[in-house]
Amino acid sequence: MGKLGILDAVDAAPGEYLFSMDMGLQNVVDAIDPKTRL
User: How far is CA 6 from CA 13, 15, 24, 35, 38, in A?
Assistant: First the structure.
């Protein structure tokens, strides 16, 4: 879990980003773009 309470899922073999999930512990990030991950 990252500092903001957002979990990132990454495929272990290729290291490819899959998705992010907000655990509801923050109100700083509104959305995460899957292409840029920002």
Answer: 22, 18, 8, 17, 12
- DSSP annotation of 9 reads E
Question: For residue 34, which amino acid is it?
Answer: P
The three-point CA angle 17-19-13 to 5° equals: 35
- Written as six digits, the tokens of 33 are 């773009």
Helix ranges (H only) for the chain are none
Instruction: Give the pLDDT confidence of 11-22 residue by residue, as tens digits.
Output: 999 999 999 888
> What whole-number distance in Å separates Cα of residue 27 and Cα of residue 38?
15
The pTM assigned to this predicted structure is 0.56
